[in-house]
Amino acid sequence: MSYRNPLSSAEDLEGFRLEGDGALSFPQGRLRLESRRPPEDGQDANVVLWCPADFGPDLAVEWDFWPVREPGLAILFFHARGLAGEDIFDLAPRSGPYEQYHHGDLNAYHVSYFRRMWPSERRLHTCNLRKSYGFHLVAQGPDPLPAALDAQGPYRMRLTVQGGEITFTVAGLTAFRWRDEQPLAGGRIGFRQMSPMIGEYADLLVTAL
Hints:
- By secondary structure, the protein is mainly β.
- The protein has helices at residues 99-102, 119-123, and strands at residues 2-5, 17-19, 22-25, 31-35, 47-50, 59-69, 73-82, 106-115, 126-132, 136-142, 155-162, 165-170, 173-179, 188-194, 198-208.
- It has a single domain, classed as Sandwich (Jelly Rolls), CATH 2.60.120.
- The strands form 2 sheets. Strands 1, 3, 4, 6, 11, 12, 13 and 15 form an 8-stranded antiparallel beta sheet that branches. A 7-stranded antiparallel beta sheet has the order 2-5-14-7-8-9-10.
């Protein structure tokens, strides 16, 4: 069983949920995500776009990614559900600040794969995997993506979760592999960005494993 979405027009986003003051457009025939607010607004300027589908625990998530403007940061949330297993769309409204996602009323994994917000992140590029509830850094590996100035996408991103083992690859290169002995039981996926980053996305494919 699989879910596929080209993310090429506004019609493709039917049922998606945007949290935060974001702008969605398709200037190149692919989804462009950006904040409407300046980075000086801090966490209030950040955005999350949730896919409407709910997925099981074992899956592969693939998408094409283009970094358009930095600094900033891009994250994929996955296996997001309420602390008692609720649909996250039934929880209290969220508006983008990161604390709502790692110390709020939900559990999730977060893979940050384009970390270029702060000087320390630009000095050495890594992909980070965190698990919440909480802000637990559980795995880290190299990020091979170039700076936005040199990017020649698309870059195919692939995340797999099977039997608690999480593997993340960027353009066929493995960034990290980690096994969770107490894995989360599936849920929703969402794309997060920190202002002022602009990213573009296309050809989202989620396959049950």
